[in-house]
């Protein structure tokens, strides 16, 4: 009797030995990272740590100096067109046309992607992200959170399998951040893989299946929240047990690397 052997699942994102410099400044110094299909991974790091540079390389907007980067098994350099067809990228600022209505923005993107039935696609996306009531309004009247939700919704037209969100809640108020968090969770629930860069540690703690910390050009920690918390000494027990927050883990890990 022959036992079937399960095929290994290709990571949604695979990075090995990735390096990138700008003149004399080494931004990425050998990044290694694998991201499983259908997961949300938060990439943490201080300003200038290289988070956006890594995302730009993975989305084919920038070329690494050395190393290997693949999305859905496709090389980001030699298979650039296929990679771009498989991904979406939402940058740090909402890329929406404020003169158009929300619905018109979505129709425009569907038309640019040469999809059939752009109006129906727009209506479906508006309903999916609870924007139907606002769909007929000019985007210039939207709140920051609504603009961000629309921006993410626009990036999902065409059903990309991998989604890059580069600091998606930058500049939003607490209510707007919560709106975007719900949108991200909804996107991931549909099976897409999400790589989220953020400086907000509570955002990573709330959303991510795994958390990677990029520090001084390298991934220094990669694991679940529980695994990261286990890096610190056991919590002192007095009347209650105080578990370390992700912020405490981040500062402890980064501080250790500086010493």
Walk me through the structure.
The protein has a domain at 13-94 and 160-177 and 185-258: P-loop containing nucleotide triphosphate hydrolases (Rossmann fold). It has 9 helices and 10 strands. With 259 residues, the chain is an alpha/beta fold. It is globular.
Rounded to an integer, what's the Rg over CA atoms? 20 Å
Helix content: 25-40%
User: Do you know the CATH architecture of the domain at 13-94 and 160-177 and 185-258?
Assistant: 3-Layer(aba) Sandwich
Contiguous helical run count: 9
Structural class: alpha/beta
Strand % is 15-25%
Largest sheet: 6 strands, mixed
In which order are the strands of the major sheet placed? 6-7-8-3-9-10
**In the CATH hierarchy, what is the superfamily of the domain at 13-94 and 160-177 and 185-258?**
P-loop containing nucleotide triphosphate hydrolases
Q: Which regions have little confidence, pLDDT < 50, spanning 5+ residues?
A: none
N-to-C CA distance? 57 Å
Tell me, briefly, the overall form: globular
CATH class wording of the domain at 13-94 and 160-177 and 185-258: Alpha Beta
What do the pLDDT scores average to?
88
Using the coordinates shown, work out and report the CATH topology of the domain at 13-94 and 160-177 and 185-258.
Answer: Rossmann fold
Helix-strand pattern: EEEHEEHEHHHEHEHEEHH
Count every beta strand, where a strand is a DSSP E run of 2 or more residues: 10
Summarize the structure.
It is built from nine helices and ten strands.
What brief labels describe this structure?
4-stranded antiparallel β-sheet; 6-stranded mixed β-sheet; 259 residues; alpha/beta; 9 helices; Rossmann fold
